[in-house]
Amino acid sequence: MIHDPIRLQELLEKPALGRIMNRLRRRLRHGRDLDSVMTFSDLSSEERSAIDRLLGRRPSSGTATSVRPREVERILREGDVCDSLEEALTHAFGPVLNERLSREAARQQWDDLHASVAQQLSDLPSYHDWLDGLFSTGRLKRWCRGDCVLAQRMMDVAATVLRGIPWPVISLADLATRLTNDSHALDRGLALPRLCLSAIKTQHPLKDHDPSRRQLWEWAGVVIDELSAPVLVLNLRADPATLLGQTINTLAEAGEPFHLSVRLLRLAGAGAFQAMSGQVVYACENPTVVATAARRLGSTSRPLICTSGQPASAAQLLLSQLRDVGCRVLYHGDFDNAGITIANLLIRRFGVEPWRMSSEDYAASMTKGPVLTNCVAASWDQHLSGLLVAAGRAVLEESVLDLLIEDLSK
After folding, report:
1. Least confident window among 24-38, 46-60, 126-140
2. Positive or negative torsion for Cα 32, 33, 34, 40
3. CA–CA separation, 401 vs 289, rounded Å?
4. Rounded-to-integer distance, Cα 169 and Cα 280, Å
5. Distance CA 48, CA 311 (A)
6. How far is CA 349 from the centre of its chain?
7. CA 325 to CA 378: how far, in whole Å?
8. 29 Cβ contact partners less than 8 Å away, ≥ 6 residues apart
9. What is the spatial distance between Cα 164 and Cα 98, in angstroms, rounded to a whole number?
10. pLDDT exceeds 70 at position 323
11. Is 33 exposed, middle or buried (0-12, 13-18, 19+ CB in 10 A)?
């Protein structure tokens, strides 16, 4: 407590005592105690005289002198000026931030946040390593510029994004609005989408191939835009009362392939395919299959969809719409790591069935294809992966085109 502020000002607030006061404040700022002796060199005669008068000692000489901070405190207390030197310095020169305590408090705050988010994501164990890395490397702190409150808000949003995967083909702007009330919150270059994508990448089936921003969002069911990356179809039909039906029915009659955008599919809705309920629709990985079917079979080909590799948003939306109306989708892809990864995804998310993708099919069609090392496990055939590894060869769709076209012609 300060008992005599006027006397305190007279004692400490002198220009000649500036060096000693600054040294004392630095000690407080760095979290050091005030017990050890402070030594000053190169003192002017005015500074030395001011120190001698403060401490009540006889005039000294020379350029160096020592000061015991607790001696200063004793003088202040015995003069009934104040109760502590810390109080005196704060009153005379303003609050001093204890940087050591501040750092410890900040570190504890981030540790508490880590524990809190870990609990929040306890139902998503596949993201635990990602979360630990965010904190151990300081990435989250850098992205939030040290703002722990902002980090908490961002992690709340990211947790919702991760828990919703796969999203039912929602646009990036719509997702941002739903989660933050800001349609631009997930735009390229911002910290929040960087955080979300860093997590999504750890689960992406092609994470070792450095998938693009678009591929990461599309794998999660989020559409960057409604017009890019359409899905290629052949002889698919829809309700003629819809713009979608008018378009693809005309092309189906001519046996011509067509690219369907997310915009067109969303405009029509799953109900546009209701007439196809119970029908079989084929799906392939490579556009060559569609081109060959169109050239050889034309309008007589069975309905065919092409994912063009890893299925983008339009392909995912179409498959979900066909699933919802009760279509049976049969899928064929390459017998390699990427092809099996895609098949696993389509089976898990959309309930598609393998089409000529069994271990027997592989053995029957195995030729001198690209070298294959290791292999992703096929969820639909426990023997296939072992056979692929033993043979050490991939089988691409192009090498079994005749078989696929034969199926499409029945």
Report:
1. 24-38
2. negative
3. 7
4. 23
5. 80
6. 21
7. 27
8. 96, 97, 98, 99
9. 43
10. yes
11. exposed
Residue type, position 221, single letter: G
Tokens 């999203």 correspond to 167
- The tokens describing 13, both together, are 């607030």
For 141, the token pair is 């702190």
* Averaged pLDDT, 388-396: 89
Q: Give per-residue pLDDT as tens, 209-257.
A: 788 999 899 999 998 888 888 999 999 999 999 999 999 999 999 999 9
Read off the tokens for 61: 């000489």
Q: How far apart are the C-alpha atoms of 268 and 318, rounded to whole Å?
A: 11
Global pTM reads 0.69
